[in-house]
Amino acid sequence: DVTIDEDLRSIITINPENDFAANTEYSVEISAGAFVDAMGNAFEGIPYTDDVGETISWRFIIDTQPPSVTFSPAAGSSGNAVDTDITLSFGEEVLLSADRSDLDNLDVDALKALITLQDADSDAVIDFDATVANEGETIITVNPTVNFTSEQRVTVTIDATVEDEAGNSIEASEAIFTIADVEAPTVTFDP
C-alpha cells in the first residue's frame, strides 16, 4: 500500500502488507520516473548512480536482537593464569547507551566506568586498564594492573551500558572465574 500525503505531496508512505521479519535485510527499489514533481522532473529511482559513479541504494535490516556478551575467561572456568587479561566480546559493534558515542581508546575512563572487576569473595575492587577494538565487533580487553593471586575467584561485570546501532541494549552480565593454584605446597617437619 503506497500513499502520498495530500497536503505536502512530497511525503510518500509505503506500508507493506506484512510485518517485517526480525534480523532480515530488506531493500527498496523504485523505478526511475515513478514520481514526477510539479515541474515535470522525474525521480531518478532507487537504486541509481550518482554524479561520481557510485551506486546509491536503500537497504536496511530490522534488528531486534540485543548484542551478546562473551567473556574470556569463561564463567565457571578455573586454572586461569595469574596474569590473565579478560576480554568481553559483543558479537557486533556497540556504542555507549548514554550518548550513543563510539567506544574507543581515547576515553579509557569511560571504558573503565562500564566494567566492574573485583574479588568474588571479598568484593574488593581490582584496578585495571582497558582497551577496545572495533573491527566488525567490539572487543574490550581488561588488563588488571597487578597479577591475580593463587586460587583467587574473580568477578567481571558489565551493566546494560552499551547497545548496538539499532538501539538494542545488552543485558547486564557477569562472569566469575578462578585463578590456578600456583603456590607450591609447603612441608612442615616436627622433630
Q: How many extended strands?
A: 15
Gap between N and C termini, in Å? Answer: 95 Å
What's the alpha carbon Rg, rounded to whole Å?
26 Å
Globally, the shape reads elongated
Weakly predicted, low-confidence segments: none
Quaternary form: single chain
Percent helix range = under 10%
Widest sheet: strand ordering: 7-8-12-11
- The pLDDT mean sits at 91
Number of helices: 1
Assign the structural class, choosing from mainly alpha, mainly beta, alpha/beta, alpha+beta, or little secondary structure. mainly beta
Write the layout of secondary structure elements.
Blueprint: E1 2-4, E2 12-14, E3 24-28, E4 48-49, E5 55-56, E6 58-62, E7 70-72, E8 86-89, E9 95-96, H1 108-114, E10 115-119, E11 128-134, E12 138-144, E13 153-158, E14 162-163, E15 173-178
Antiparallel strand pairs: 1-2, 3-6, 4-5, 7-8, 8-12, 9-14, 10-13, 11-12, 13-15
Summarize the structure.
The chain has 191 residues and is mainly beta. The protein has one helix at 108-114, and strands spanning 2-4, 12-14, 24-28, 48-49, 55-56, 58-62, 70-72, 86-89, 95-96, 115-119, 128-134, 138-144, 153-158, 162-163, 173-178. It is 4% helix and 32% strand.
